[in-house]
Specification:
The complex is a heterodimer of chains A (281) and B (317). Chain A is mainly alpha-helical and 281 residues long. Chain A has eleven helices and no strands. Classes of the chains: A mainly alpha (281), B mainly alpha (317).
Chain lengths: 281, 317
């Protein structure tokens, strides 16, 4: 392209700045997770002495935060996966109808999804807190999965409608003309094109459920259903003289690394999903 | 969904006339497919807000559930005449305005970098920018909290050359420094979203217009101000509205860093502390309803006042 040296240096600096800005807080908490109890107070970014004891605290049998962290991890994974699955399945039907069929109320559905996605979560949580306690859903998986749908459904409907609208549906008819049964035509011509959109919506919906804190902290009281973000705020040190800082940092890294890996692998799809869902809808 | 163009509408009309049975069965199928998602979505939001509106008219504490008493709008009167509520409102609005303003500038810079980057760098830059999006807000809050904390932090020793900052400076003991760190964490976590929306907006600006302006002798800054920005006004408006409504609901960062101490209690936290902290369901519900009404008002002002055209930005017209 014949870029000038100045241009190259400029881009190098810009890239470095972006990397530092985006990764520094993650690096910072990663370093904290390797600090010893004394090292926490060193006033330095890098640990003066490296240790894995914080990871042992949350993962190894007998670790002080293990019985808080592992159930929370199980709850977070289970609850987020189930609410993502329900949302994506229902939203797939809904988005298919919006993209393919002619019926009144499409605009109403999309506008409602938009309104629900900006709805203040705290306004939902107070009545649910009261209701869940009287119907026995307080501190259960179902008690979180249901309100999580208010987070995962709207974004799934928007993203999937955007994806489905771009699918060349004529291919399906072409396949039928060529003698394929409707089911085979759908499977061979539509599914391969729709699958990436469904998959991307699932990733985005999962991120949103995985990130929730308000529901998690309000609608649970024990390790029976408490998800990771809420559990982190309940960590205490191994003794009353110890800070939970190291254990919290280690737990934060354990729940962050898989997400970063997913972002690394699917960045292109996530970007197109987010922008289509929000802007092009 | 925006209104179909006239030709499309005419085509639809013709189709409807030709086969109204078919159209009716198509509509029925449409609602069968879309209905469950639509109904469930409304059920999980509409029902709670109606329940909250109802509860907000009662004096109801879970510590004394039998003393439930209808009080009309008294809860609202108490809240609206209490300085604590207005202070929360001001703090929330302050955080909203400042974060959205910073994120708009920063997000635009990041979007420009992504837009212009050569192919070899584009992947790595986009991945890096997306990382904060995937990180749990609570984790981001802890990362910034530990970095600034007077005991476990290193920011004080890094920046002790700045007047006012030394080893004994407690960021979380006063309102302004606390808000600074809260806003920093919020900006870090949510800028990716706004920059992606702006990136999509940038992609819609016709490249020929920018080229033409350059040929006419316009400088980079002038092209940006006169050609690029006006052409992506719609995308900017949508990004600002979305982020403003999200920032207005801020909860996680404040809960982790200060718990609302030192006048940092935002509206969401006020509602949470009232209903789930102190079990005053009636009062908490009233705050929840007021929060919901505030979001409605902000959306209304944005859509009517600033003419944010939600359908126009979806590339359908």
């Amino acid at each position: 392209m014949g870029m000038s040296t100045r241009g190259k240096v400029g881009w190098l600096i810009a890239t470095l700045l972006v990397l530092v800005w985006s990764l520094f807080p993650v690096f910072s908490i990663l370093m904290t997770s390797f600090k010893t109890q004394d090292g926490l107070f060193s006033g330095t970014l890098l640990p003066p002495e490296w240790t894995f004891e914080n990871y042992a605290e949350i993962l190894a049998p007998g670790g002080s935060a293990q019985d808080l962290f592992l159930p929370a991890l199980r709850n977070s994974i289970g609850i987020s996966l189930i609410s993502t699955f329900i949302a994506v399945v229902l939203a797939t039907f809904c988005a298919y109808a919006i993209a393919r069929l002619d019926f009144r109320g499409k605009k109403l559905i999309l506008t409602s999804a938009l309104a629900v996605s900006v709805f203040p979560v705290v306004s939902i949580v107070t009545p649910l807190f009261n209701l869940w306690r009287s119907v026995g859903l307080y501190d259960t998986w179902a008690g979180l999965i249901i309100p999580y749908l208010s987070l995962t459904l709207p974004i799934s409907i928007w993203t999937l409608s955007a994806f489905f609208r771009q699918i060349p549906w004529e291919l399906e008819q072409a396949a039928q003309v060529d003698g394929a049964t409707p089911f085979v035509a759908f499977r061979k011509a539509v599914v391969p094109l729709a699958a990436p959109g469904v998959f991307t919506s699932a990733i985005i919906a999962f991120f949103i459920a995985w990130n929730d804190f308000v529901y998690g902290i309000s609608l649970t009281s024990t390790t029976a259903a408490r998800p990771v973000p809420a559990a982190l705020s309940f960590f205490t040190g191994a003794s009353q003289f110890e800070e939970p800082t190291g254990a919290i940092s280690a737990a934060a890294i354990v729940v962050t690394v898989p997400v970063v890996v997913v972002v690394l692998i699917f960045q292109r799809r996530i970007v197109s999903g987010l922008t289509q869902g929000a802007v092009k809808g | 969904m925006s209104a179909p163009t006239t030709t499309e509408a005419r085509a639809h009309g013709r189709r409807r006339k030709r086969g109204s049975d078919r159209a009716r069965s198509e509509a029925r199928l449409g609602w069968w497919l879309a209905g469950p998602a639509f109904g469930l979505m409304l059920l999980v939001t509409l029902y709670p807000i109606l329940q909250a509106t109802y509860d907000s008219l009662f004096s109801l504490r879970l510590t004394a559930p039998d003393e439930r008493e209808f009080v009309g709008i008294e809860n609202y009167a108490v809240i609206l005449t209490d300085w604590a509520f207005w202070r929360s409102m001001l703090v929330t609005l302050f955080i909203t305005v400042v974060t959205v303003a910073i994120e708009l500038v920063l997000g635009f810079a990041l979007a420009m970098i992504m837009h212009r980057a050569i192919t070899r760098l584009r992947g790595i830059i986009r991945t890096a920018i997306l990382v904060p999006y995937g990180i749990i807000t609570v984790v981001s809050a802890f990362a910034f909290f530990y970095a600034f904390d007077i005991n476990t932090g290193y920011i004080n020793s890094w920046f002790n050359w700045v007047p006012g900052i030394d080893e004994s400076f407690n960021w979380f003991a006063q309102q302004w420094p606390s808000l600074f760190v809260i806003i920093l964490s919020e900006v870090w976590k949510t800028t990716p979203f706004i920059s992606l929306l702006l990136l999509a907006g940038l992609a819609q600006v016709p490249g020929e217009l920018e080229e033409a302006a350059k040929v006419d002798g316009a400088k980079g800054w002038q092209v940006l101000r006169k050609v690029t920005l006006p052409n992506m006004k719609a995308a900017i408006m949508v990004a600002v509205l979305f982020r403003a409504l999200e920032a207005f609901r801020i909860f996680d960062n404040v809960f982790i860093m200060t718990g609302g101490a030192n006048n940092t209690e935002v509206l969401s936290l006020l509602a949470y502390n009232t209903s789930i902290g102190r079990l005053e369901i009636g009062m908490g519900s009233a705050i929840s309803v007021l929060l919901f009404l505030s979001v409605l008002v902000i959306s209304f002002i944005a859509i009517k006042g600033f003419r944010v055209d939600l359908s126009g930005t979806r590339g359908e017209n």
